[in-house]
């Protein structure tokens, strides 16, 4: 097998693996309905229907849960951009095309169920949410890094796992068993998506190890959550990190490391030249992330301690 495969050769060679994993996905994916996770009987009409308009007092979510819900929902809302990415880098024929359609349809359900939940429980300001959605979708998502199939499958492997972690922790942070159950369901989908892409990337590592590991290294170094272009993302990302929804430690321990272990990046003996250098870059990246994660945890612990003392002083 040549080490310099064209995009078309890669798509063709990987097609049987796509078919196997598509079948696997379809046998594992369970049908689910957003309305089963949304408390419809608590819903009341908004002002346009002659009901009571939204009031901040009605939200049961604390600031961290609100920020996490909005960030995760707006991220899901940008689906047309992600669809464009994978539709461009993957093929739309055969099992590739079936996968692109299946994945898109499943992802769409995530925004549906989260928005329905937030609307009927009056969890966030629906007008602000809609304005943020418009702004975010018009900006779209267009990462320069996902330029070919190898970069694409590497990116989505980490991204699906990152969203799984973020949804799962958001569910816990909401303090509402309904939200927790709903986001557990969404996180289960993200996990299946991650497995699909992780298996494909593993197949690519077999076919073209040096090019694949270079793509993995490039993606890790610039990885950003797909929602990074949304309004208030930086501010909300700080809140999410502080609240343990998604932080550097989780990124390293629950996303980066398990995937690298599964691909046996540091054990493989089929990298040469650029491939070996890419693996070294991954090693350096992991060590640097470890140092940053530890530093972040220490400064978070100090900040939480300061908050605790301040609260104590106020209550005396
Ligand atoms: Fe999703
Ligand atoms: Fe997903």
Structural description of this entry:
The protein is built from eleven helices and no strands. With 316 residues, it is mostly helical. The protein has a single domain, classed as Ribonucleotide Reductase, subunit A, CATH 1.10.620. The radius of gyration is 21 Å and the shape is globular. The mean pLDDT is 91. The chain starts with 6 loop residues before the first helix and ends with a helix. The site of one fe (ii) ion (FE2) has 6 residues, from helix 6 and helix 7.
Radius of gyration: 21 Å
How many domain units? 1
Count of DSSP-assigned helices? 11
What about the largest sheet? none
Would you report the number of β strands?
0
State the secondary-structure class: mainly alpha
Give the % helix. over 70%
**Apparent shape:** globular
> What is CATH's topology name?
Ribonucleotide Reductase, subunit A
- Which series of helices and strands comes N to C? HHHHHHHHHHH
Strand content: under 5%
CATH architecture heading:
Orthogonal Bundle
Poorly predicted runs of 5 or more residues: none
- The CATH class label is Mainly Alpha
| Mean model confidence by pLDDT | 91
Intertermini distance: 73 Å
CATH superfamily annotation: Ribonucleotide Reductase, subunit A
